[in-house]
Amino acid sequence: MSEKVLKTAFWTAGIILILAGAWAWYDRWANSDQHTNYTSLVPWGLWVAVYIYFIGLSAGAFLVSSLVYVFQIKRFESIGRLALFTAVVTLLMALLSISADLGHTFRAWHVLVYPNFTSPMAWMIWLYTAYFILVVLELWFVLRHDLVVGAKAQGARATLYRILVFGSKDESEATDASDRQIVRILATIGVPLAIMFHGGVGSLFGAISSRPGWHGGLFPILFLVSALASGGALLVVASAVFQDGLRKHRETVLALGTLVLGLLLLDVLFQVSEALVGFYGNEPDKIENLKLIYSGPYWGVFWFWQIGVGTLIPLALLALPSRKDARMVAVASALIAVGFLAVRLNIVIPGLASEQVKGISAAFNSDRVTTDYVPSAMEWLFSAGIVGIGLVLFGIGEWFLPKHHDSSSEEVSNVNA
After folding, report:
1. Distance of alpha carbon 237 from alpha carbon 231, whole angstroms
2. What is the pLDDT of residue 415?
3. How many other CB atoms sit within 10 Å of the CB of residue 388?
4. Within 10 A of 167 (CB to CB), how many other CB atoms are there?
5. Res. 1 pLDDT band, cuts 50 70 90
6. Are 90 and 57 contacting, i.e. CB atoms less than 8 angstroms apart?
7. Residue range(s) defining the domain that contains residue 128
8. CB of 406 within 8 A of CB of 400?
9. Which among 35, 66, 217, 229 has the fewest CB atoms less than 10 Å away?
């Protein structure tokens, strides 16, 4: 499949998903949560799972970029700016998703103005803000030289470039070296920041002792490993589609696929460890939660989506001789990226579906007092619209961002974000 066909497929899928989600977006803001399937016992659902999924993609993509801008690993240089752009886009998608779950979205700024720093959630919001500013600044300094060069041309795009660099015409080697130094400083600061904010999401779940399915010290580490595996997988797909990676950067795609394979295996190890500790610990509430995932109403999400689609098939593609085919590596990575949404769903929903007060759902004759939760069509369509926005943003970024010519490498690489 040619790069042109892949790009067309991306644009088409994005537009279709946005149109499909348009009704759900209107319904959410016009009717609040009226058409969601949340219950009094399961107050978090699909949108929270999608939120932590995209947050993980953002943190993972940024941490992969640190291999280039902090650790100076040349093998991954061609995906550096793409990783930063991916981190920005997926963070925006995460914020859109959690905004749908908030009862009063437009009061979110209160957390910044009136924070309670004994709350992990307050820390998360502040860390998100700092992370977003840092990633945008780092991306600007990475692109600045190429924006200045592109601004010398004619047309609307060149005009926009001139605005973004504030009319600067400085493309000297000294300024370029200064930009690279600033990028390295920002990237170095960003590594612990990304670890803190996504590890903080894991801590938010792990610290809730009233939810045995979540409570544990491994959750922050598990969230970070999942972020690296899913973010790296998304970068493989994006590289194949937008960087002509199947041809020009084949070796980079293959190397990144090997990295993703190792991270996926590490994630599986942590998940198996979490399950074994739960079963051998013989805690009734923890075991009940695990049974909900493995053999309860959500068993299909785990066995077919998470294990089948997201783990076993990609492991086979990345471990067998197909690992030398960039196309198969891209397919495997796409399956991994999709599979990690099932991981997030299996964290959020079964963790809430265990009754904290035994028999409470049977004591009330109400559809809202139940542990049975399946996302409504409106919830799925709203999330589909967010995915569509992400795809279109990738397409716009690939069209808008300037081409980068690296004369220091053996081959000239056109790296489009």
Report:
1. 10
2. 37
3. 20
4. 9
5. low
6. yes
7. 3-400
8. no
9. 217
CA distance 125 to 197: 9
What is the arithmetic mean of pLDDT over 128-138? Answer: 94
Mean pLDDT of 114-133: 86
Contact 48, 225 (CB under 8 A): no
Task: In whole angstroms, give the CA distance from residue 159 to residue 279.
Answer: 62
Say if 413 falls within a structural domain.
no
- State the amino acid at position 225 in one-letter form: V
Residue 295 lies inside a defined structural domain of this protein: yes
What is the C-alpha to C-alpha distance for residues 132 and 129, in angstroms, rounded to an integer?
A: 5
What is the number of structural domains in the chain? 1
The pLDDT value given to residue 414: 38
What residue ranges in 195-351 does DSSP mark as E strands?
none
Q: CA nearest 36: which of 274, 270, 378?
A: 378
Residue 410 within any structural domain of the chain: no
Q: Which residue has the higher pLDDT, 193 or 416?
A: 193
Q: What is the pTM of this model?
A: 0.90
Structure tokens at 3: 């790069």
Q: Which residue is associated with the tokens 């690279």? A: 180
| Residue 412 within any structural domain of the chain | no
Half-sphere exposure of 261 (CA within 13 A, CB side): 22
Q: State the Cα–Cα distance between residues 56 and 61, nearest whole angstrom.
A: 8
Render pLDDT for 51-78 as a digit per residue (tens, 0 to 9): 999 999 999 999 999 999 999 888 888 8
Q: Which helix (H) or strand (E) holds 393?
A: helix 377-400
